[in-house]
Amino acid sequence: QESLKRHGFDGEIVALVNDTVGTLASAAFLDPSCVMGVILGTGTNAAYRENVENIMTLPEEIRQQGGEMVINMEWGAFGDRLQMLPKTDVDEVLDRDSRNPGKQSFEKMISGFYLGEIARLIMVELIQSKELFTSPEVVVPEDLYTPYSFKSMHLSDIEYDLSIDQRIIDKVLDQYQIQNATSDDKTVLKEISGMVIERAAKLTACAIVATLKHINKSTTDCSVGIDGSVFEHHPSFRQRLLKALTGLGYDIPVFLTKDGSGKGAALIASGLCKSK
Predict the structure, then answer these.
(1) What value does the mean pLDDT take over residues 2-6?
(2) CB 152: neighbour CB atoms within 10 A?
């Protein structure tokens, strides 16, 4: 507050809100039955509405007052302390070579920052085992062996290329100067892209359903608001997430909360000001 005033800002700071809490507030404003806000973008996190009486870290006198409190889950770190996530050798390599080994285990399996790298590591493994780009005419540049050189946004481009000549895949490969890929190569790339997105969507669905079960929400009285590029710009991710939720018994509304973090923060600030 003091620092902002020194820079000419005369307003009052009434709340500090992270992106998940803001997304939940924005989504609940649009749909009062919304109990979860989820970020699925470069990173991932979630927040949910918990009954105060169930929050054992609060003093008993506060718990006895009842009501609800929003819990920031920091679910990107799920699995850091206990080895409970279904990791593969690719996940182990990604984690080992990451900037924060042993941390943000769940985030490294579902967020946009890592999905492209997971796909790249699979490609490299298949190239080394001579199952991808095996034709002597295929040119694979060294850039493909550079960590994080393959971007997550291309997964949907590759998977959703329904053109007869697969020209969209060719455009993606051209960006990485991969030349003369065969039809079989492109089929493998589509399978890789689909599997990476499929796993991320199913893991996300598991985390959402586990949270809803924790707060005893049925399929008839809740919804989930989601913000972030993975949910917004990967159409197959959204479809697979809905299918996975249904498969887990939760055929519930899941909707995009565009710029939910900023809008939610504004709603919270407005509510606090009006309550004074």
Answers:
(1) 86
(2) 26
